[in-house]
Each structure stands twice: as structure tokens, then as C-alpha cells.
Amino acid sequence: DQFSKITKTGIRQSPIDLITERAITPINLTPVGFHYQDSVFSLNNNGHTIQADCDPDNSIVIDGHHYTLLQFHFHAKSEHLIDGKDYPMEVHLVHIISDKQEDAPPPVAASKPAQKSLAVVGVMIKEGKENPFIKNLWKKIPEAKGTPVHYFITGQNANALLPEPGKRSFYRYNGSLTTPPCTENVLWTVMSKPIEFSKEQI
What we know:
Elements: H1 6-9, E1 17-18, E2 33-35, E3 40-45, E4 50-54, E5 59-62, E6 65-75, E7 81-82, E8 89-97, H2 106-110, E9 118-127, H3 132-137, E10 149-152, E11 170-175, E12 186-191, E13 195-197
Parallel strand pairs: 1-7, 9-12, 9-13
Antiparallel strand pairs: 2-5, 3-4, 3-10, 4-6, 5-6, 6-8, 8-9, 11-12
């Protein structure tokens, strides 16, 4: 708590160990709608991680609410555990609530999260085959805190950081940012199936 007081007093701090046998499946749980497309990425090296700032045309829909993709970044090892197991790496796709649901049905509009609420999709990464999207995106990684590098990769986008369609089961919980200020305004969706990066990419 020397970095953020809420880490001592908060009740929804992330990351956590996701225990399958303790998970409850609500009857109204719906899949995440992913709407990622080819767009410009601005690659940054902040000295802590490699982060790609994203074009605002990328978004997801959760429970009828639209969230805009802000950026994605990486942690090694994974921050979350699944049944006590960590992974060599985890990618976090960070989204912020948007204003697109002004014409949503009243029940959806009434449940709209507060402004600046975040929704983060976490995906575990295991060692395996090379990820072509990352191979292109990481061709030139900027120096720590150096000038960002801009990319547009035709035919490749953030969908390459998700498990393939049909294998996108997930854990959902309300938590926090995992780095200071550790605020508890984050709706977490952690995919249960990992994706693969090569050993060299990890």
C-alpha cells in the first residue's frame, strides 16, 4: 500500500486465482461481442511493458454496453492464475465504456456503467507456435520511453490475441487495475483457453 492505499483497504483487488469449481454460471451471461478490425497501432515501450495504443474503431460489447479498445499490453509471467496455475505471459486488452448505447433499451441503458469504467480482457499465453501478428507488430520495438512506432498491418488485428471462435469461454469478475492507482472500476473477462506465442516471442 506504499504505492496505493486502496490495495490495503479495497475489497476487489486484482489479479486473483480463478478457481473453476467455485465459479457460478449466471443464466443471463452472454458472450462478449468482439469488433476488432485492421487499424493503426502506436507501439510504446514504457520501460515496464510493451503497449500498443489502438485506433478507437475497435470495440467490444458486454451485456449490451459498448467499450472502446484503448490499448493492449503484456505481463510475464501471467498476473492471473487459473486453478493455481500461471502462464509464461498474459495479454490485457483494455477498454473504456463508450457513449454508443444512447439508443439502448431502457433496461440496458439503466445498467450502464459509470463514465471511465474499464473492461479488460485477459488472455493467457503459452509456449507454442509463433504468432504472426506479434511477429509483425514487434519487428521494431522502440527504446524504453522512446518515440512510439506506428503500424498498420493489413489483414491482421487484435483478434489474433484471442482464442479462436468457439473456444472463447471465460471467467468474469469485478476487480481493479493491477498497477497503481489500483482503482476498483474494472470489469474483468479472463479467457479460459490460452493462445500461443513462440518461445522467442515470450
